[in-house]
Every structure is written in C-alpha cells, then in structure tokens.
Amino acid sequence: MKRFVKVLLQNPGAASLALFTREIWANPRAMGAACPSTPSLASRMASWVPLDQEGLVVELGGGTGAVTTALLKHGVPPWKLVVVERSPTLVNHLRQRFPQLRVIQGDAAHLTQLLGHDHAQGIGSIVSSLPLRSLHPATTRAISHQFEMLIKSGGLLIQFTYNLRGTRDRLLPCFRRVSSKIVWGNLPPARVEVFERE
Ligand SMILES: C[S@@+](CC[C@H](N)C(=O)[O-])C[C@H]1O[C@@H](n2cnc3c(N)ncnc32)[C@H](O)[C@@H]1O
C-alpha cells in the first residue's frame, strides 16, 4: 500500500486517474464520465476562450484539472481564472495542483453566490465540463439559469457532452450555438459545443 501511494505521489497523472476513479464510485451521476478528458478534448475547449476578452474565465467541474491545465497552457492568466468544483476531495486536489488559482467548492447551481463579489468584474467565458445530462433535471435547469444571468451578451459558454447529437436547444434558449464539433481523440469521443449569449 505504501509503495502504491509513493508511486501515485511521484506520478501526478496516475494520482489524478486514481482519484477520478474513486470519485466515480462515490458519485457516478455527478462525475458523468469514465475518465478525465484527454488533452485533445481539453485543448479544443480552451482554444475557444478569447484572450483579449474582459472579465473572468470561470471553469465549472474542474475534476482533476485536465481542462484547467489546458486553459493555463492556452494563455488564460491565473488571476482571471476561477475554478468551481462540487467535490471537496477534488477541490483539495485542485488547490494542491494549482496553488496560483482560486478554486471554489460548491454547486454550480448557486454560481452567483459562490462567486460573491468576483462576478461584479463580469464574466467573459464559462468553460463547463458539467455532466448536464446525468445531473438531476432541477439542477440542470438551475445551472442553465445561472448561465443566462451571468454571461453578458456576446459572452461564450463552452460545454462538452458525450451526447454526440449535442445539447438540446431548449436547455439554453438565450444562447446561439456558434460551433459544435466532435473530438474523436477523446475516450469516449465527445462533442465540444460553443454558445454565444444573445
Ligand atoms: C465529467 S467530470 C469533468 C472533470 C474534468 N473537467 C475533465 O474534463 O476531466 C465532471 C466534473 O463536474 C463536477 N460536478 C458535477 N456536478 C457539479 C455541480 N453541480 N457543480 C460543480 N461541479 C460539479 C464533478 O464533481 C466532476 O469533477
């Protein structure tokens, strides 16, 4: 056991995978995925974040940090990035892995409250890995209401889904879909959708 823990600590990739797997056992509906996003999916999502945009970049469902890593690599400044994650265990992991970032523990259905004064700066983009299909429908509705309230006209919502047919239009009535492409290199393949607030 000691040797196993030592190997995990020396190998952040393996540690992330082990943690992700444990969280799936604990809460499969909230995790909504069999494994962390691959770098190809994460970098596709991050590439949509405009770097010249005012306001915060909010990542929802940080997990073990696959998309967070891609957002930083893409050039999002750490002071502009806020990560929200529901699981306290994953929040601890994210805080250790990214001490330079603000990581908030809580449910994205209460995003306005979680961001507190921060949302007064405005939100440029939201990058979401939330499993909207597998969450309770009331939670999904509350989250989509938060998107409508917090993203200003012209702002972007970048969301991925394992539903290769894409997100239902009626879930985001105030948004216009500007891109929807499958990333075949993810395991399993996933669709990255980009919505602009009207
Ligand atoms: C599909 S995993 C994605 C993890 C990571 N971003 C990735 O791409 O590998 C979904 C993440 O959303 C988190 N989550 C689920 N429901 C949430 C909610 N209501 N509010 C905040 N985070 C939530 C889960 O704990 C999990 O870490």
Automatic annotation (TrEMBL):
Pfam families cross-referenced by the UniProt entry: Methyltransf_25 (PF13649)
Domain Methyltransferase intervals: 57-155
Record keywords: Methyltransferase, Transferase
SUPFAM superfamilies for this protein: S-adenosyl-L-methionine-dependent methyltransferases
Record carries keyword Transferase: yes
Gene3D superfamilies: Vaccinia Virus protein VP39
Top-level taxon in the UniProt lineage: Bacteria
Listed name of the protein: Ribosomal RNA adenine methylase transferase
